[in-house]
Amino acid sequence: MENGVSIFIAVGIGVLLITQAVVFVGLYLLARRVVSVVERAGELQTRAEYLLNNTEPVVKLAHHLMADLKEASGYFVQGAEQIHAITEMARDEVAEVKSILGDATALTRREIERARGHVQKVQETIAEATDEFEKTTALVQRSILEPAREFSYVMYGVRRAVEVLVTRNRLPVNRAYQDEEMFI
User: What pTM was estimated for this model as a whole?
Assistant: First the structure.
């Protein structure tokens, strides 16, 4: 039995040694992993510190920007109110201009109609004056110029007759024809 116990103890110690070796290998692997995680955590901590250090100015800048935007929003509101007021004034002015243009258009139409009436009267007067002038011209030609022309022809004939009787010279052919052409 003693041999059996010693084998049992030797087997138990062997199992315990193997278990202990497995536990040590596991602890070693676990320690390596923990070191890796700790190193990674250190890197993350460094990054986080870097980000915190760099975000602080960004946060301050954002805070100042928000304050500026808040102040600018007041100006935007004032600008919008002024634009609204200007729009209302422009709308009123457009309505007034539209009214004035309507009145001016009506007045212009009336004046155009009156002017057309005057132009019509002037055209009729000019037409009458032209007709009267033509009648007068025709009358002057019939009653004054035609008798004067006929008298001129008679006087020319008398002069020619006197010339022929007094001079008893005949005119050269070219002179005679020229005088007759003037008579004709």
Answer: 0.33
